[in-house]
Amino acid sequence: MKNLVKLGLAALLSTGSILLNAQRKNTENSTLWEISGNELTKPSYIAGTAHIMCSKDFEIKTKVMKALEKSEQFVMEINYTEPTEIAAMQKMYQTDKKLSEQLSPEEANELDKILADYGTDLKKMDHSSSQGLYALISMKALPCPQTEIKLYEIELLQNALKNKKKVSGLEKVEDQMTSINKAYDLKAVIGQLKMGKEYEILLKEMVEAFKKEDVQSLYTLFKNDKIMNAKQEKAMLTDRNKNWAEKMPEIMKKESAFFAVGGAHLMGENGVIQLLRSKGYTVKPVSSL
User: Fold this and answer.
1) For residue range 200-227, what is the model confidence (pLDDT) as tens digits?
2) How is the chain split into domains, by residue range?
């Protein structure tokens, strides 16, 4: 489990770990949603997660744990219990071509200077993939040491395993890698690294909003175009949301499910909630269970 936690942290960091939950109406403020109707015999649930938080801010609300307990299966973005997925994750941060070989001398020198702000340098990171570089952003933005980081999905996973629930994933590591590469090439990641302090401020505001389940504020914060432009949003959110929304009906039809996904996937016209509603499901915020 210790190695699983480490890999989970790395994967969550590389997939936009500060992206949280948002939805379109002030009256729909919740990080937990119930899915019913459309011939479902039992309700399922979807929780928007904050991926990673410092232990001092971390909390899984009682209603979320109760929803997980009521569900017959636990579904994550990626199934961290599959050996093949773990192996794929381990390769995720390696690159066949050194970073320095992908950049001009001037660009490599600039990256080396940027990395100094993250406590490392290009020599140490030269064999990392762009995803490995991207993970540095969230690590720096979090105002606590790595030993005090809590992983929302891993906490839920441990509970699900303890209660012997079936565990599965909505996509494979390879799928996620394809999306990340479409959204953030090396130069785009370097641009994100330059933001530095801006990420720290933004993450703090997001965490506070998430703790209050103030999804409207989270939506406003998330729409900061410095984090994600239209092309990146399509690759990281829209396309993946549509793929997941196609898979979820079959999963829910068989057994009640508890889905845990990065909260940004719930939001907007192309968010999972609206996509499920368009398929005829009733999806409503849960205040308590």
Assistant:
1) 888 888 888 888 887 667 766 766 777 7
2) 2-94+129-285
